[in-house]
Amino acid sequence: MSIPYRLIRSARKTLAVQILPEGEVVVRAPRRMPAAAIDRFVEEKRGWIEKHLANRPLAQPTFSEAELRRLARRAQEEIPAAVARFAPLVGVTYGRITIRAQRTRWGSCSSAGNLNFNCLLMLAPARVREYVVVHELCHRKEMNHSPQFWAEVARVLPDYDTSRQWLRENGEALIGRLPK
User: Fold this and answer.
1) CB under 8 Å, gap of 24 or more: what pairs does 105-110 form?
2) Residues 37-96: pLDDT tens digits?
3) Which of 89, 109, 157, 167 could form a cystine bridge with 139, CB 3.0-4.6 A?
4) What is the number of H-type helices and E-type strands within the chain?
5) Computed from CA positions of residues 123, 129, 133, 139, in that sequence, does the dihedral angle turn out positive or negative?
């Protein structure tokens, strides 16, 4: 029996599978990739998908609008200070900083140097927030996830992988508590 999934095609070059907090399987694929190749990819990932669907945490209460506003206010106080502290260590400048409650990203960096951060980072350990800040600042040098990019992150935060792992293990549960 095949695994049901929602397909999203875009200008991307690679295939990716994601399990949303509510348990929906989403596959992201290049626009012109044949359906058979996508189905093979999903079948190859069957073990990973089933394991993660089985290990999903029990549903937590949804964040209220008031809770999200409080988190955003805290983030607006703390994250810009962290950006200002780490930007000279990375050796970059930056533009505007925006705080939002985002469903798919912890942070992002535009080509103009504007930075966006998820207010839910305030529920993560400080070292995880610092990792996301450094990660986005390093995109000011490398707008990709090449080996050079990761070397730059490691230069500033040699133990960044522990924070990255924390987000992999705990991030979905936090984002899953955002209101629909």
Assistant:
1) 106/132, 106/167, 106/171, 107/132, 107/133, 107/135, 107/136, 108/136, 109/136, 109/137, 109/139, 109/140, 109/143
2) 999 999 999 999 988 888 776 667 889 999 999 999 999 999 999 999 999 999 999 999
3) 109
4) 6, 6
5) negative
109: Cβ contacts below 8 Å, ≥ 6 apart: 94, 115, 116, 136, 137, 139, 140, 143
Report the candidate in 95, 97, 93, 91 with the shortest Cα–Cα distance to residue 78. 97
Of 122, 136, 137, 112, whose CA–CA distance to 174 is shortest?
Answer: 122
Q: Burial level of 51, CB count in 10 A (0-12/13-18/19+)?
A: exposed
Spatial distance between the Cα atoms of 93 and 5, rounded to a whole number of angstroms: 41
